[in-house]
Amino acid sequence: MTAAAAEIPLKPQTKQQPQRASVTPVSPVVPIVPIKAGFFGGQGAGKTTSAAMFGLALAKELHGSAPVWVTDTEPGWQFLRPMFAAEGVKLEQRTVPTFKAMLSDIREAERAGACVYAVDSLTIIWNELMQSFKAKNGGRIPINAWGDIKAMWGEYTTRFLNSPMHSFALGRLGNIMEEVEGDRPGDSRLVKTGTAFKAGGSESFGYEPHLLLELSLERKAKRRAGVEHEGEGRMIHRADVLKDRTWALNGKVIRWSDKANYQPGGYMQVWNSLKPHFDRVQQTMAIVTLKTGTSSADLISDDGKSEFYERRERRDLCAEEIKATLDLIWGGSGAVEKRMRLLVTERIFGIKSRESVAALSLDKLERGLHILQAFEKRVRADKSMLDKGEVEALAQLDSDIRQYDEGKAEELELPF
What we know:
By secondary structure, the protein is α/β, with parallel strands linked by helices.
């Protein structure tokens, strides 16, 4: 406080009658229901640009220019950076084309406050998942692996629908073929009866989105002196609305003209065309999440990992720990060490190959690791145990196996 200010006399306090504050009703903030859209079509049909325009519109019109994220497998979104820069919207582009990376990208985008997440293309991700299973199974996918594939793919579709972000999936065009009878009895042929969003195996991904657009190209012929010149003119992006669960756009055909360059506000053409779907979603839908759990437990934990993933990760850790423990006790490349590792593996798991051990169920792996832990503890306590020979070591191992199976073994915690 300055000296001048201190010289100013304070006004005496006067007792005032309490006044009732006027209350203005405050409308509760209604959360925005996220859009779930699919874009598919042939190469160069305009899927990427159309989805980017829609994402820009959502970011600018509704979310205060929040970031737009994309898992870009080809990649192609870097060519759209000038468009996002012109609107002041951050484009976060991730280019690892794997299923695992895509799930990680979704979680990271949500934590970072992105308003739109897109995967382009989901077809590439699906193919990568198939190739990964083939690589692990000698170039083929066994029938018993399809349960795991469906569980993994189901984790993505659940996240696609449940995410608080607007979610876009872009994919390639696939043909629906059906067998029809020929002109002569017994003859048949395959006939194209439609198109589909190529991802997710025999079932098209087109079922999951609430809005599904098939993109294609049309050329508007150039006219000179009233004469149309085919092969010249502007490209038109055509969007056939194959599905709109709100019915606002169902069956409509939308056309967006191609532009030589992007100008600020250029997204409005796409936004105005698709806004009826957005408006109807807000009117008719609440934020409803797909329940993926059973009566006993949810499949997806708080950190975004599915029960399937958690079990698989734990199984991999068990297999690695078993291998490390065997190498620690009977390390080296001599004939005696190799024979002991083989005999112990067979004794505990009933199989000789350590590679086959990794394919066992989690319960069998955890049992085996507990037994090996007990045996390792004995070896640490008595360094001379391994010098007593093969028969003595296996006899002690048999004792550890019996004690564990009978529930008499000391409960040792797994190291993870």
